[in-house]
Amino acid sequence: MQYKNWLITQIASEASIVEEEVDCDKTFDQFNLDSLAIVSISFEMESQFQLENVDPSLFSEYNTINKLCVWLENQQ
To answer: Secretion signal: which residues (predicted)?
Structure first.
């Protein structure tokens, strides 16, 4: 759950919306995040969760918060 809450906060901040508007089943492109925002979240994710080389393309492959959380859980 820590991943989901963290991602909700990051997406809301980058998309300039309130956290309650973040639907974890919406694709990241539905939040109108540009590539810079995705790269920024990727770097923050590395730092926050002590991961190495979080490729921004993960946001395409695992294109919702719920899908990305499954990937993150499998990395620990």
So the answer is: none
Which domains does the chain show, CATH number per domain?
2-16+25-75 (1.10.1200.10)
50 to each of 28, 54, 76, how far by Cα in Å?
22, 10, 9
The encoded tokens of residue 44 equal 């923050």
pLDDT digits (tens, 9 = 90+) for 36-50: 999 999 999 999 999
What value, to the nearest 5°, has the Cα angle with vertex 16 and ends 8 and 75?
Answer: 25
**Tokens read off for 68:** 């990305």
Q: Whole-angstrom Cα distance, residue 27 to residue 7?
A: 13
